[in-house]
Design goal:
Layout (H helix, E strand, L loop, with lengths): L9 E5 L21 E3 L3 E3 L9 E5 L4 E4 L11 E10 L6 E9 L2 E8 L4 E8 L2 E8 L9 E8 L2 E6 L2 E2 L1 E3 L14 E3 L9 E11 L14
Antiparallel strand pairs: 1-16, 2-5, 3-4, 4-16, 5-15, 6-11, 6-16, 7-8, 7-15, 8-9, 9-10, 10-14, 11-12, 12-13
C-alpha cells in the first residue's frame, strides 16, 4: 500500500506503482498534474518501498518534469516535500527536486558532493539567501525516508524521521513563486539521481513535521 496518505494539503503524490519498465508516472491527486518522464526514467519492480514498484533513474539524464503550477508556490513559507529514496551510488551533486525561473532564481534540494550531505538552497538574484545543510545523507543501497520542511522561519531536514538539520535551520528568507517546470531528480536536466525513488509527495501550506517522527510502515 502507499506510504503517504492523501490529504487536503498534498498537491502532488507519486506512488510510482505501474507496470515494470513503464515510463508513465501518475499523480494520485483528484486533479492530477501531467508528469513527463525524461531520458530513461521509468518504473521498476526490482526495488520498491511500497506497492511493488518504484521510480528508477540511471544517473544520466533521467528525471521527471511537471509544468509550473500555483501549487508549487512556496513563497507562503509553510510546506513539505518528502519521499523514499534508495540510491545505487553517488556521483557528483545529486539533485532531488528543483524549480527554476532562471539560473539566478531557483530552489533546489540536493546531495552536495563537496560536503557529502543533503542541502536546501534558495537563490535570489544569483545570491544564496537560504542555505540549510544536513549533517549526513541517505545511505546508498537501502531505503530511507527523506523530508524537507519549512515552517515560517524554521527549516528542517529529516532522514528516517530524525532531524539531521546541521546549519541554516533558522532563516527569515524563503522561496519565491518560480515560473519554471518543477523537476524531480534533476536541476536544469542535469546532475540526476542514480537509484530508486518511491512515494514522492509535495504538501503546500502545511509543515508535516517539525520534530522527530516515525515514518509510516504501510
Amino acid at each position: 500500500c502507499a506510504s503517504q496518505p492523501n490529504d487536503l494539503n498534498s498537491v502532488l503524490i507519486l506512488h510510482m506503482n505501474v507496470e515494470n519498465n513503464d515510463n508513465i508516472f501518475t499523480d494520485s491527486q483528484s486533479t492530477p498534474k501531467t508528469i513527463t518522464a525524461n531520458g530513461n526514467a521509468k518504473t521498476s519492480s526490482s526495488l520498491a518501498k511500497f506497492g511493488g514498484s518504484s521510480g528508477f533513474f540511471d544517473g544520466t539524464g533521467d528525471y521527471l518534469s511537471i509544468p509550473d503550477s500555483s501549487d508549487f508556490n512556496f513563497a507562503g513559507g509553510v510546506w513539505t516535500v518528502d519521499f523514499w529514496i534508495n540510491p545505487t551510488a553517488y556521483s557528483g551533486d545529486v539533485y532531488l527536486f528543483s524549480q527554476q525561473t532562471d539560473a539566478s532564481n531557483y530552489i533546489a534540494f540536493f546531495r552536495d558532493s563537496g560536503l557529502d550531505v543533503l542541502r536546501l538552497v534558495v537563490i535570489s538574484g544569483a545570491a544564496n539567501v537560504v542555505d540549510v545543510r544536513a549533517s549526513t545523507k541517505p545511505v546508498a543501497g537501502v531505503w530511507s525516508h527523506v523530508a524537507v520542511v519549512e515552517n515560517g522561519n524554521s527549516y528542517y531536514i529529516f532522514i528516517n524521521g530524525v532531524d539531521v538539520t546541521a546549519s541554516g535551520g533558522t532563516d527569515a528568507d524563503r522561496a519565491a513563486n518560480y515560473t519554471g517546470t518543477f523537476q524531480i531528480c534533476a536541476v536544469s536536466a542535469g546532475q540526476t539521481l542514480n537509484g530508486y525513488m518511491d512515494e514522492f509527495r509535495v504538501s503546500n501550506t502545511v509543515a508535516q513535521w517539525t520534530a522527530g517522527f516515525t515514518p509510516s510502515t504501510v
